[in-house]
Design brief:
about 90 residues, 2 helices, elongated
């Protein structure tokens, strides 16, 4: 048996396997980056987008109506969350 030839053959097989795995990983990374680029842009969330100031308000259609009646079925959902307090909290 020629162990040198066997070693070279096994090394070649291992190298080919590493090349296939590396190529698959590169392909996966490239397709993920391409998929991220295809998404819709959100210019209002960009780093350089102007930030709203204290005088900027939402359009009237998006402001909540503070005088709107609350149905009895939803009053529990709007109640403040409370927990029983056994001891006063030290602050």
């Amino acid at each position: 048996m020629n162990f040198k030839r066997i070693g070279i053959g096994l090394g070649g097989i291992a190298g080919a396997a590493l090349a296939v795995v590396g190529g698959a990983l590169l392909y996966d990374v490239a397709t993920r980056k391409a998929a991220q680029r295809k998404g819709d842009r959100a210019p209002d969330l960009a780093e350089d987008a102007p930030r709203p100031g204290p005088d900027d308000r939402a359009p009237d259609a998006f402001r909540p109506d503070p005088t709107a009646p609350v149905p009895a079925t939803e009053r529990d959902a709007l109640a403040p969350a409370t927990i029983p307090v056994s001891e006063p909290l030290d602050r």
